[in-house]
Structure formats: structure tokens, C-alpha cells
Amino acid sequence: MKVKLFAAAVLSMVFVFGTAVRSADEEKDIVDTAVGAKMFTTLVTAVKEAGLVETLKGKGPYTVFAPTDEAFKKLGEETIKKVLADKELLKKILLAHVVEGSVMAEEVVKLDGKEVKTIQGTKFMVSTKDGVKLGEAKVVKTDIKCSNGDIHVIDTVLMPAKE
């Protein structure tokens, strides 16, 4: 009896506190959520440089597959500097991480073997073998709910197809 009561109390606390945390996140838009997360400093800098702040603060909803600072480091400092200097290329790369609409993890999992088209126009294959992957990027955290969409954290920067 005591075990059941304790379990019910813990579940209640998780629900209450989990909801409070989620509600606070949901009040922030995608950009403000990324800024607050502290693991997307390169992404936030790139979004500012590309002039996409207002877009990603817009009504949406958008789903952003957000590469971490570690994901950007994989590109190398020289590549990052080159891309930051070319605003059109930068914008193209960043928009290859954005999908229109709210796509939660439970929906992404159902897309195994299918392509997802980004608002930039690039298509990435979704795979659910050994975790969820979008192209070469592994999804490491899902369903960060924002006021204008969702963020899924990825470990690799997605590169759009060359024209």
C-alpha cells in the first residue's frame, strides 16, 4: 500500500513539475528557446548572420532540427568561417534544418524509410534503425515544444543538396 501511495505521489510530482517546465518552454519561441538552451550558440549566431531571426520568431509552426555546438565543430573552423561569410549559403544550410508544421517525435518515427522535405527544398531520408536519423544526423533529443513549433536536437549539421 505504501509503495503504491509513494509511486502515485512521485508520478503526481513528475506530472506537475514536468508540466510547469514544459509550459515555461512553450511560452518562448524557437529562437528564444535556442538562446536559453546554451548548447546552440553557433546556431544562434548563424541564424542572426543569415537574417533568419524574424522568420524563426514568426507564427509558424516550424519544426527545427537544431545542430548543437558540437555538431558545428565537426565541420571545422575553416568551413564555419567560410559559410558564415557567404550569407546565401548560410541561409540555405540553415533552412535545410527547418520543416513546416509541428512534427513531434511520435510522427517522425512513423516516417522510417521516407523522405522529409525542408522549407529550403532539400529532402532527407528518415531512418529509425539504431535511433532516429535525418540524413546523416542522429536525433539526440526530441520534442522541445516552443510557442511557434518544436525543436529536435541533432548531432550533425545537415548539408543541402548541391544544385
Could you describe the 3D structure shown?
This protein is α+β, with helices and mostly antiparallel strands and 163 residues long. The chain has one domain: FAS1 domain. 46% of the residues lie in helices and 21% in strands. It is built from 8 helices and 7 strands, in the order H-H-H-H-E-H-H-H-E-H-E-E-E-E-E. The chain has helices spanning 2-26, 30-37, 41-49, 53-57, 69-73, 77-85, 87-95, 105-109; strands at 62-67, 98-100, 115-117, 123-127, 133-134, 137-146, 149-154. It has a 7-stranded mixed sheet. Strand 4 (123-127) and strand 5 (133-134) form a beta hairpin. Helix 3 crosses helix 7 (87-95). The chain is globular, with a radius of gyration of 17 Å. The model is unreliable at 1-23 (pLDDT under 50).
CATH fold annotation: FAS1 domain
CATH evolutionary superfamily: FAS1 domain
Unreliable segments of 5+ consecutive residues: 1-23
Q: What is the H-and-E element order?
A: HHHHEHHHEHEEEEE
State which percent range the strand residues make up: 15-25%
Which structural class do the helices and strands define?
A: alpha+beta
- Mean pLDDT, nearest integer? 85
Order of neighbouring strands in the sheet with most strands: 2-1-7-6-5-4-3
Give a quick precis of the structure.
It contains eight helices and seven strands; from the N terminus they run ααααβαααβαβββββ. It is an alpha+beta fold.
Helix and strand layout, with pairings?
Elements: H1 2-26, H2 30-37, H3 41-49, H4 53-57, E1 62-67, H5 69-73, H6 77-85, H7 87-95, E2 98-100, H8 105-109, E3 115-117, E4 123-127, E5 133-134, E6 137-146, E7 149-154
Parallel strand pairs: 1-7
Antiparallel strand pairs: 1-2, 3-4, 4-5, 5-6, 6-7
Helix pairs in contact: 3-7
